[in-house]
Design a protein that fits this description.
The complex is a heterodimer of chains A (122) and B (107). By secondary structure, chain A is mainly β. Chain A has no helices and eleven strands. In chain A, strands 2, 4, 5, 6, 9, 10 and 11 form a seven-stranded mixed sheet that branches. In chain A, strands 1-3-8-7 form a four-stranded antiparallel sheet, with no helix packed on it. Chain A starts with a strand and ends with a strand. In chain A, 39% of the residues are buried. Chain B is an all-beta fold and 107 residues long. Chain B has strands at 4-7, 10-13, 19-25, 33-38, 45-49, 53-54, 62-67, 70-75, 85-90, 97-98, 102-106. The chains are: A mainly beta (122), B mainly beta (107). The A-B interface holds A 35, 37, 44-47, 50, 59-62, 95, 100, 105-110, 112-115 and B 1, 32, 34, 36, 38, 42-46, 49-50, 55, 87, 89, 91-101.
């Protein structure tokens, strides 16, 4: 079945780095744009970043621009989020999510992973 | 960035009720609007996309309407499994944004 599984979360000190992974299965990963979305404890959803199906186009939220990098390896069916210069306000559950449509960057998210928790604390 | 408001933020209702949640955008987004349901400790799930298209597998008691700046999610007959938080999301332009959420709880 279609599935996304995140990993790589954990506790990191302010200023530190972490790389999240999202393993995809059950669909043609290389055909779909992918996103990262986060949710701070007790708060709402915040879109973080997008990468086009072939990696040719990327967008970021202002809150993470210059610190986070989204990438993908279509040969491994895996999405990544490299997070540098982490701050306390980056503490959240991080979800990867799949575009529902092909051929466009503008799509709702039809499949979500279960999330991985990132805690930034000294 | 495009911002949205959702109302109400909290909705207390009973099983069988008809409930309506509104989402208003800071600028027009045509029909590039989705609705998600999220239950505690779980990932969000897509209910509606393109403002009014029901995602496969979603019960027909859910419906969406609107275009431009004003959108509505309606649950025609609330079931026990529908008590959750609902978010609207615009995907008209980057950065994509979510509404602040509407929690539907038991009256």
């Amino acid at each position: 079945q279609v599935q996304l599984v995140e990993s790589g979360g954990g506790v990191v000190q302010p200023g530190g780095s972490l790389r999240l992974s999202c393993a995809a299965s059950g669909f043609t990963f290389s055909s779909y744009g992918m996103h990262w979305v986060r949710q701070a404890p007790g708060k709402g959803l915040e879109w973080v970043a997008f990468i086009r199906y072939d990696g040719s186009n990327k967008y970021y939220a202002d809150s993470v621009k210059g610190r986070f990098t989204i990438s993908r390896d279509n040969s491994k069916n895996t999405l990544y989020l490299q997070m540098n210069s982490l701050r306390a306000e980056d503490t959240a559950v991080y979800y990867c999510a799949k575009d529902g449509s092909v051929g466009t960057d503008l799509s709702a998210f039809d499949i979500w992973g279960q999330g991985t928790m990132v805690t930034v604390s000294s | 960035a495009i911002w949205m408001t959702q109302s109400p933020s909290l909705l207390s209702a009973s099983t069988g009720d008809r409930v309506t949640i509104s989402c208003r955008m800071s600028q027009g987004i045509s029909s590039y609007l989705a609705w998600y349901q999220q239950k505690p400790g779980k990932a969000p799930e897509l209910l509606i996309y393109a403002a009014s298209t029901l995602q496969s597998g979603v019960p027909s008691r859910f419906s969406g309407s609107g275009s431009g700046t004003d959108f509505t999610l309606t649950i025609s007959c609330l079931q026990s499994e529908d008590f959750a938080t609902y978010y609207c999301q615009q995907y008209y332009s980057f950065p994509f944004t979510f509404g602040p959420g509407t929690k539907v709880d038991i009256k």
